[in-house]
Amino acid sequence: MAPSPTAVPIELTDDERQTLEAWTRRRTSAAALSQRARIVLACATGEGNTAVGRRLGVHRNTVLLWRRRFLEFRLDGLLDEPRPGQPRKITDAKVEEVITKTLETTPKNAPHWSTRSMAAEVGLNQTAVARIWRAFGLQPHRQETWKLSKDPLFVDKVRDVVGLYLNPPERAVVLCVDEKSQIQALDRTAPILPMRPGVPERATHDYKRHGTSSLYAALDLSTGKVIGALHSRHRAIEFKKFLQTIDREVPQHLAVHLVLDNSSTHKTPAIKKWLLAHPRFELHFTPTSSSWMNLVERWFGELTNKKRRRGAHRSVRTLNADIRAWIKDWNDDPKPYVWTKTADQILESITRYCTTTTDSGH
Predict the structure, then answer these.
(1) Rounded to whole angstroms, how far apart are CA atoms 72 and 173?
(2) 172-188 and 255-260 as β-strands: parallel, antiparallel, unpaired?
(3) What is d(CA 75, CA 319) in angstroms, rounded to the nearest whole number?
(4) Is residue 55 part of a domain?
(5) 309 and 180 share a domain?
(6) DSSP per position, 322-346
(7) Based on the domain organization, do 189 and 300 belong to the same domain?
(8) Same-domain check for residues 265 and 302
(9) Residue 177 has pLDDT above 70, yes or no
């Protein structure tokens, strides 16, 4: 076996040693550069390649490579060489132009830019525009809706409802109440074709209407159970009947706190008179345009996704029977929704959003 070559000694200047030590300590340094710096520092102590490799956990050939690179090019030899490939063609100015036009302008014949229209506008190809948009998180084709409540008592109502969610009173039940009106009994004009391997379930796009129903629901905050009632109309009369249903369902020794919206059917003289005769009921109104604060809306979403969206009903009677069956199944294994954000967190989030929107010039 041929003898191992003698390792060429490395002598470092003070500046080189400081730079190498800084490269091993800085978190922003690449892992590869940090390792190369440790190899050179170890070689500068007079150790051979094999000993340095054993101590740092690398192959002796790796130590030999970076020892030679450092002796030939000093610190510059430890840096990565430019990789092969075409030089960059899109300048920073061109990237800025794409971003500025995307954010501040719209095309003449469309409500938003597409990759093709922007590419034609700035003189790039479609792929380059898509890459720039992806890098900066721009999606001109998307639009989301938003609405801020103009309720003058918004802060007070948020604190009232959230306080009820996070710290419900003792010897009381908290019910989130709302109505889902105009639920349509829809039937497809042709039978739904079942799913087959490689073919999804298929339904005709057109349908027949067979009437509507209105669902009143009260979601128990602590248990997740739902008190439901179906009516053909949506008036204060039906709401009063639902209050009577709740009164029968909830044990008489418990106070009843209802979280509900500001619908006019909840505030008629007949409703107020009924509430005066039933003092254990207390109403907590969510702010206007803030249905997201009523947890029963989340339950309505479950009902829509799991029962109504792909259902077919030839009559209101079958629709109501389906809904009642779904409520029964839900109550057999209820899942309460847990509110986590405090009123202060909600108000701070809204404040930040308003500040950001105002600062952006909108």
Answers:
(1) 80
(2) parallel
(3) 78
(4) yes
(5) yes
(6) HHHHHHHHHHHS---------HHHH
(7) yes
(8) yes
(9) yes
